[in-house]
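Here is an idea for our session: we take a single protein and study its fold together. Which protein we use is up to you, so please pick one and set it down. Once you have written the record down, we can walk along the chain together:
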Amino acid sequence: MATPTYTNSGDKASTAAKLDKSVFGVEVTNHEVIKGVYDAYLANGRDNLAVVKTRGLVSGGGRKPWKQKGTGRARFGSSRNPIWRGGGIVFGPTGEENYSKQVNTKTKRLALRQALSLAAEAGKIVVLEDFAATKTAEVASLLNKVGVNGRVLIAVEHKTDELVLATRNLSDVKLVQPAYLNVYDVMNADKIVLTNVALDHITKRLGGDK
């Protein structure tokens, strides 16, 4: 399976890169695997920030609203009772909830192969022989020259300081190493740019029955 391949300067390469069918040609008949891993990624990155106050945490309410007997009204010990306005919350979030989801490695790799296969089928994958731009303008020019726009995911062998500086000011560009490629980034990218070395790493990592 061939894919568009370009040189570091953005010119068409003489030889097109081949995408391994065991990684980029997987038949996707059920999207539940991808959805499960995608949801787990979001859940595991969720910040547990929501916290409410129980009746013991709400300030005030130390004085009994009225005496126990003789008023004809129901007895109350505190104005911070949950059934009163301004009272505590009974079953709200405490900040200790665990939203994380566990997914085994085999399922993660299967989902990533399926996501990459869908991307390859949609023509989203572009291969560069090398990616050595050191300035933001050079990166933008190179991506424009090879027809890559929108949300772009770039996979390189090593995230050098120069590459990080050159890409971080491009809001729709994300730079990753092959080992950190994930379903969330692949599914949300309009284009995926892989260097030849990164492509080899991905194929070795996900190829076969792994």
Observations:
- The first strand starts at residue 2 and ends at 3.
- Helices lie at 21-24, 32-44, 105-121, 136-145, 161-167, 183-188, 196-206.
- The beta strands are 2-3, 5-6, 17-18, 125-128, 152-155, 173-176, 191-195.
- The radius of gyration is 27 Å.
